[in-house]
Amino acid sequence: MTVTTGRRERKKAATRQKIADTALRLFLERGYDAVGIRDVAAEADVAVTTLFAHFPSKEALVFEQEEQFELRLTQAVSDRAPNDPLIAALRRAIHVLVGYCTAKGTAPIWSMIDETPALREYEESMRQRHARSLATAIAADLGLPSPTTACRTIATFVADAYALARETDDPAAAVDEIFRMIEAAWQAARPSTDPTGTPSPE
């Protein structure tokens, strides 16, 4: 049963990746607005229903790593070592995401996103979703029942960091600069996130 499940999951993952790769190729070749969902499904040799089983919308085809990005951010909080400072762990996670987003060959993709209103809106809503999930993870890490204003604010700063950094000439340096400001903000806000009124340990 384990072998069967593993094979099924691998097949699903391969189909998902094939759809995403096909969509991106068509979008870059013909233009995002000129390609429809049926065009992608036909080129990938899958049913439209299969495509929607993997991607909820046309915009999601461009951001096929969205779930992995969100998971990496929340796991940076929940899976870090006991003595690993929160902001440092998040900085490392953002460095990885920025590296992915600025890798060789990604410039045409970001140009398409920047030039397409629907994709810009989706990216913004995606960052908001990531920030909400991250705020929840930070609150849980602090033992809080729900995210405080400080948790939500820091989470928003972190979720926006990769978008700000990727637009600079030196994304890695930009991440470090941004996180120096995030660290200062967190140090200022951290006492208010602890119900006892004392600074929360990292």
Automatic annotation (TrEMBL):
User: Which PROSITE patterns does the entry mention?
Assistant: HTH_TETR_2
HTH tetR-type domain residues are: 13-73
What keywords is this UniProt entry annotated with?
DNA-binding, Transcription, Transcription regulation
Which InterPro entries does the UniProt record give?
Homeodomain-like_sf (IPR009057), HTH-type_TetR-like_transc_reg (IPR050109), HTH_TetR (IPR001647)
What Pfam family is a match, any one?
TetR_N
DNA-binding region positions on the chain: 36-55
Task: Tell me what this protein is called.
Answer: TetR/AcrR family transcriptional regulator
Species this protein is from: Streptomyces heilongjiangensis
